[in-house]
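Long-time lurker, first post. I've been practising inverse folding by hand and with some scripts of my own, and I keep getting stuck on stretches where the C-alpha coordinates seem ambiguous. Below is the full C-alpha coordinate string for one chain I'm working on. Before anyone asks, I'm not after the true native sequence, just a reasonable design that respects the backbone. If someone could post their per-position residues I'd love to compare against what I wrote down in my notebook.
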Protein backbone atom coordinates (compact mmCIF):
# COMPACT_ATOMS: atom_id res chain seq x y z
CA UNK A 1 0.00 0.00 0.00
CA UNK A 2 1.04 3.62 -0.36
CA UNK A 3 1.20 5.97 2.57
CA UNK A 4 -2.13 7.65 3.22
CA UNK A 5 -5.07 5.96 4.87
CA UNK A 6 -6.11 2.46 5.92
CA UNK A 7 -9.75 1.35 5.78
CA UNK A 8 -11.00 -0.77 8.66
CA UNK A 9 -14.36 -2.03 9.86
CA UNK A 10 -14.97 -1.18 13.51
CA UNK A 11 -18.11 -3.10 14.27
CA UNK A 12 -20.61 -2.03 11.62
CA UNK A 13 -18.77 1.22 10.84
CA UNK A 14 -16.06 1.54 8.19
CA UNK A 15 -13.49 4.28 8.76
CA UNK A 16 -10.35 5.47 6.98
CA UNK A 17 -7.48 5.91 9.44
CA UNK A 18 -4.45 8.07 8.64
CA UNK A 19 -1.20 6.10 8.39
CA UNK A 20 1.75 7.90 9.98
CA UNK A 21 5.38 6.92 10.41
CA UNK A 22 6.53 6.29 13.96
CA UNK A 23 10.12 5.79 12.80
CA UNK A 24 11.91 4.65 9.62
CA UNK A 25 10.88 1.03 10.19
CA UNK A 26 7.34 1.35 11.50
CA UNK A 27 4.13 3.14 10.57
CA UNK A 28 0.78 3.04 12.35
CA UNK A 29 -2.84 3.60 11.41
CA UNK A 30 -4.01 6.12 13.99
CA UNK A 31 -7.42 5.86 15.62
CA UNK A 32 -7.93 9.11 17.52
CA UNK A 33 -11.21 8.69 19.39
CA UNK A 34 -11.53 12.37 20.31
CA UNK A 35 -11.57 13.19 16.58
CA UNK A 36 -14.09 10.52 15.53
CA UNK A 37 -17.26 12.45 16.33
CA UNK A 38 -20.18 11.87 18.65
CA UNK A 39 -22.22 9.60 16.38
CA UNK A 40 -19.30 7.27 15.63
CA UNK A 41 -18.40 6.91 19.31
CA UNK A 42 -22.03 6.42 20.34
CA UNK A 43 -22.47 3.58 17.83
CA UNK A 44 -19.08 2.01 18.64
CA UNK A 45 -19.82 2.22 22.36
CA UNK A 46 -23.23 0.62 21.84
CA UNK A 47 -21.75 -2.24 19.82
CA UNK A 48 -18.92 -2.87 22.27
CA UNK A 49 -21.40 -2.75 25.16
CA UNK A 50 -23.41 -5.50 23.43
CA UNK A 51 -20.27 -7.65 23.29
CA UNK A 52 -19.46 -7.01 26.96
CA UNK A 53 -23.00 -7.23 28.36
CA UNK A 54 -22.89 -11.01 29.07
CA UNK A 55 -20.12 -10.42 31.63
CA UNK A 56 -22.55 -8.87 34.14
CA UNK A 57 -20.36 -5.86 34.80
CA UNK A 58 -20.42 -3.52 37.77
CA UNK A 59 -18.08 -0.86 36.42
CA UNK A 60 -15.99 0.08 33.38
CA UNK A 61 -12.36 1.20 33.68
CA UNK A 62 -10.29 2.94 31.03
CA UNK A 63 -6.99 4.73 30.41
CA UNK A 64 -6.92 8.47 29.72
CA UNK A 65 -7.20 10.16 27.36
CA UNK A 66 -8.32 8.28 24.27
CA UNK A 67 -10.23 5.63 26.19
CA UNK A 68 -12.54 8.09 27.95
CA UNK A 69 -15.04 8.69 25.11
CA UNK A 70 -15.38 4.93 24.70
CA UNK A 71 -15.79 4.32 28.43
CA UNK A 72 -18.56 6.91 28.61
CA UNK A 73 -20.52 5.32 25.77
CA UNK A 74 -19.99 1.73 26.90
CA UNK A 75 -21.07 2.66 30.43
CA UNK A 76 -24.15 4.45 29.11
CA UNK A 77 -25.21 1.56 26.88
CA UNK A 78 -24.69 -1.00 29.64
CA UNK A 79 -27.10 0.97 31.81
CA UNK A 80 -24.38 1.70 34.38
CA UNK A 81 -23.58 5.09 35.88
CA UNK A 82 -19.98 4.95 37.04
CA UNK A 83 -16.72 4.47 35.19
CA UNK A 84 -13.18 4.93 36.47
CA UNK A 85 -10.14 6.41 34.73
CA UNK A 86 -6.48 5.51 35.02
CA UNK A 87 -4.59 8.72 34.31
CA UNK A 88 -1.19 9.24 32.73
CA UNK A 89 -0.89 12.93 33.66
CA UNK A 90 -0.51 14.04 37.29
CA UNK A 91 -3.48 16.02 38.62
CA UNK A 92 -4.02 17.72 41.97
CA UNK A 93 -6.40 14.99 43.15
CA UNK A 94 -3.85 12.30 42.29
CA UNK A 95 -1.08 13.37 44.67
CA UNK A 96 -1.50 10.14 46.66
CA UNK A 97 -2.55 7.98 43.72
CA UNK A 98 -1.99 4.25 43.32
CA UNK A 99 0.59 3.95 40.53
CA UNK A 100 1.85 1.47 37.96
CA UNK A 101 4.64 1.94 35.41
CA UNK A 102 3.81 1.76 31.70
CA UNK A 103 5.50 2.44 28.35
CA UNK A 104 3.27 3.06 25.32
CA UNK A 105 4.22 2.43 21.69
CA UNK A 106 3.42 6.07 20.83
CA UNK A 107 5.28 7.60 23.80
CA UNK A 108 9.08 7.80 24.08
CA UNK A 109 9.40 7.94 27.85
CA UNK A 110 8.16 5.61 30.54
CA UNK A 111 4.99 6.85 32.18
CA UNK A 112 2.94 5.97 35.24
CA UNK A 113 -0.70 5.07 35.41
CA UNK A 114 -2.33 6.94 38.29
CA UNK A 115 -5.52 5.82 40.02
CA UNK A 116 -7.33 7.99 42.54
CA UNK A 117 -7.42 6.23 45.93
CA UNK A 118 -10.87 7.72 46.51
CA UNK A 119 -12.18 5.50 43.68
CA UNK A 120 -10.84 2.20 45.05
CA UNK A 121 -14.18 1.35 46.62
CA UNK A 122 -15.77 1.61 43.16
CA UNK A 123 -13.69 -1.34 41.90
CA UNK A 124 -12.75 -3.36 44.99
CA UNK A 125 -14.55 -6.70 44.77
CA UNK A 126 -16.45 -5.55 41.67
CA UNK A 127 -16.75 -7.12 38.22
CA UNK A 128 -14.74 -4.75 36.04
CA UNK A 129 -14.21 -4.41 32.30
CA UNK A 130 -11.14 -2.59 31.04
CA UNK A 131 -11.98 -0.76 27.81
CA UNK A 132 -9.58 1.14 25.59
CA UNK A 133 -9.48 2.55 22.08
CA UNK A 134 -6.62 0.39 20.78
CA UNK A 135 -4.67 -2.54 22.18
CA UNK A 136 -1.27 -2.53 20.50
CA UNK A 137 1.74 -3.78 22.44
CA UNK A 138 -0.43 -4.66 25.43
CA UNK A 139 1.69 -2.46 27.70
CA UNK A 140 -1.10 -0.12 28.84
CA UNK A 141 -3.57 -2.97 29.20
CA UNK A 142 -1.10 -5.05 31.19
CA UNK A 143 -0.33 -2.14 33.51
CA UNK A 144 -4.07 -1.51 33.95
CA UNK A 145 -4.61 -5.16 34.87
CA UNK A 146 -1.83 -5.07 37.47
CA UNK A 147 -2.99 -1.81 39.00
CA UNK A 148 -6.68 -2.68 39.21
CA UNK A 149 -6.09 -6.20 40.49
CA UNK A 150 -3.78 -4.69 43.08
CA UNK A 151 -6.67 -2.69 44.51
CA UNK A 152 -9.06 -5.64 44.52
CA UNK A 153 -10.84 -5.42 41.17
CA UNK A 154 -12.12 -8.60 39.54
CA UNK A 155 -11.29 -8.06 35.87
CA UNK A 156 -13.69 -10.22 33.88
CA UNK A 157 -13.21 -8.89 30.33
CA UNK A 158 -11.24 -6.44 28.21
CA UNK A 159 -12.93 -4.51 25.41
CA UNK A 160 -11.39 -2.45 22.62
CA UNK A 161 -12.34 -0.84 19.35
CA UNK A 162 -9.39 -2.44 17.55
CA UNK A 163 -6.42 -4.65 18.27
CA UNK A 164 -3.22 -3.72 16.45
CA UNK A 165 -0.99 -6.48 15.03
CA UNK A 166 -0.13 -9.27 17.48
CA UNK A 167 2.44 -8.25 20.10
CA UNK A 168 -0.34 -7.73 22.66
CA UNK A 169 -1.11 -11.46 22.76
CA UNK A 170 2.37 -12.30 24.07
CA UNK A 171 2.44 -9.33 26.43
CA UNK A 172 -0.90 -10.21 28.03
CA UNK A 173 -0.29 -13.97 28.20
CA UNK A 174 -3.33 -15.83 29.53
CA UNK A 175 -5.20 -12.53 29.91
CA UNK A 176 -5.23 -12.13 26.11
CA UNK A 177 -8.16 -14.56 26.04
CA UNK A 178 -10.31 -11.89 27.74
CA UNK A 179 -9.92 -9.39 24.88
CA UNK A 180 -13.02 -8.61 22.83
CA UNK A 181 -12.53 -6.26 19.85
CA UNK A 182 -14.77 -4.69 17.20
CA UNK A 183 -11.96 -4.77 14.63
CA UNK A 184 -8.26 -5.30 13.98
CA UNK A 185 -5.52 -3.42 12.18
CA UNK A 186 -1.92 -4.24 11.28
CA UNK A 187 1.18 -2.16 11.72
CA UNK A 188 3.10 -1.26 8.57
CA UNK A 189 6.69 -1.81 7.42
CA UNK A 190 8.57 -0.24 4.46
CA UNK A 191 8.45 -2.39 1.33
CA UNK A 192 11.77 -1.06 0.02
CA UNK A 193 10.26 0.95 -2.82
CA UNK A 194 8.55 3.80 -0.99
CA UNK A 195 5.41 1.93 -0.04
CA UNK A 196 4.26 0.00 3.01
CA UNK A 197 3.29 -3.59 3.66
CA UNK A 198 0.96 -4.87 6.36
CA UNK A 199 2.55 -6.62 9.36
CA UNK A 200 -0.01 -8.55 11.42
CA UNK A 201 2.57 -9.96 13.86
CA UNK A 202 4.71 -7.06 14.85
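-- Answer (accepted) --
I ran through it position by position. Result:
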Amino acid sequence: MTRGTYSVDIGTQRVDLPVVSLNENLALALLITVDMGVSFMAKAGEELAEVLAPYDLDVVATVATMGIPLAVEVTRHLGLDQYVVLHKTPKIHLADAVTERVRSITTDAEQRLLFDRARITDVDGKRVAIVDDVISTGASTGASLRLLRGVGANIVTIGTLVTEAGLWRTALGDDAAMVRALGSIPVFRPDGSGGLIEDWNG
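A couple of notes from the structure itself: The chain is about 20% helix and 35% strand. The chain has a mean pLDDT of 94. Happy to go over any region you disagree with.
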